[in-house]
Amino acid sequence: MGKIKAAILGTGNIGTDLLYKLERSEVIEVVAMIGIDSQSEGLKRAAEKGYATYSNGIEAIVANPNMAAIVFDATSAKAHVRHAKVLKELGILAIDLTPAARGPFFCPAVGTTENLLDLHNVNMITCGGQATIPIVYAVNQVADVIYGEIVATISSLSAGPGTRGNIDEFTITTRRGIEEVGGANTGKALIILNPADPPILMRDTIYCEVKNMKEEEIRDSIYTMVEKVKAYVPGYRLRQEPLFDGNRVTIFIEVEGAGDYFPPYAGNLDIMTAAATRVAEDFARAMLDRTTLETH
Amino acid sequence: MNSQVNKPIRLTEVCLRDGSHVVAHQFTEQQVRDVVRGLDDAGMHYIEVSHGDGLGGSTFQYGKSLVNEMKLIEAAVAACAKSKVAVLLIPGIGTVHELKQANDLGARLVRVATHVTEADVSAQHMSKARELGMETVGFLMMAHSAPVEKLVEQAKNMESYGAEAVYITDSAGALLPHEVRERVRALRQSLQIEVGFHAHNNLSMAVANTVVAIEEGATRIDGSVRCLGAGAGNTQTEVLLAVLDRMGIDVSIDLYKMMDVAENIVGPLLPGSQEIRKGSLVLGYAGVYSSFLLHAERAGKKFGLDPRDILIELGKQKVVGGQEDMIIDVAAELAKKKEIEV
What we know:
heterodimer, A: alpha/beta, 2 domains, 40% helix, 24% strand, B: TIM Barrel
């Protein structure tokens, strides 16, 4: 089986961590790392590893549209709005790791009903969304979530300028994900940066107000979902047993990263890049299957 | 020194925002109207109205508001003849959408608040506030927890985003007078914009610290009538006004009228005494965000723990403002340990 060619746009924390993860992929081959600052740490690392690097941003793809069938966008929400248009015109699949929310939301643990080959842009929601939406979904499946609220706390060191400049896009996109993917009637998302040294692991608290309180079923559904997420984010775990109080259940999650590019505390980066890798691999397989079908 | 040397002192009354914590966010429109009318009549410059955790703060994490804060803001604006209504916005909790809504309802000033080391998350909101024509003020919370150089760097960032003033916000009520002096002085030397000070009275330092801040040139000052604010409350506004008068500083707010507001309107709203008791004392002592107090007391009851132990542990773990979910988490953890020891 061949591999599908992909480029990474954005050389910050997320882009660089993604590069490390994609190196291990059996169906995706990274052909270029593209940034806008030739001196950036991410570009230097990619060059050292022997990848083609570009510092002229999206122009690098416009100049050579055949270089990749998939482009991962790890820039910022504002930049992605522009990139999305360009990539669509070029017929390249965009996997968007910013909270720009141009394409349908994807969360691997929840799955999708979309036909992959029809899509040209998919959005990975946010790190907080990837960590919490599976739990909201799990609770909603058995208890009907009326209101889902999540609090994502991440270490300051793991929040790059893209995240910091787009905090509103984070909270708004995460809220939409809680509703549209998680299934809560109403959602709310909060994000907190904590500068403690040594840095804290990513932690997420999920509050669900449910219509049908069934403790046993809710607990089991949460446990099953945690295992599902663990399959692609090994450091994903419950910090405490779920707490039940009236019609409310509170779930405490902790995400330890795989330590690929960033140290393990940056579970927020890890869950984002792991989820994007998982989704991109599904697309790559679908693309490879189509090629096989067409040749036969 | 800098160009702001002769700015007059302007006071912001925070009892309807910081005090929202004390009443578990249960303020009604009538209460807001009554308090605002009294403050406006006394000549208060700004009156802050929002959920205790700022716009969008009505959540399970912090407590749901009884009345939508937009309705409270609307009521406050309608009750003002001269005073201006201010709002608080903590990026990560509220967004520019709520800010725009508040501005449409007549709020004229916004304080954009971040943890003292995280100013850059406020750029988006400050630029929006300026675009809306709102007076834009930065609020660096938990200011005791960072070295002075860090505070200066972060305040300068806020200045570059368009802030017209930056506050040193002593959210934990942990600063001592010499530390306030050092911080205000450093900011006055490095900024072109005004410097503000927001105190909590957990170590009974609020009025003293505020006087020191004013001596050093801070011109934006917060207070809460009857100390109606998180923890042991803030600088008690009516007391500060008496002190300023004795110092010969005229801020054009009627002292007697403020005393009457304190006695007759705000007094009956207090659910209990705001004097410094063991919980709020520990906040100041351990350097913990003041609005954690009631949550820690509730968690203490639920898990059979001394709330002081919870607060001390939160201080050790360097929890920042907004991390109320950590209170339950830490309490559950402490309860587990206690069980093992027994």
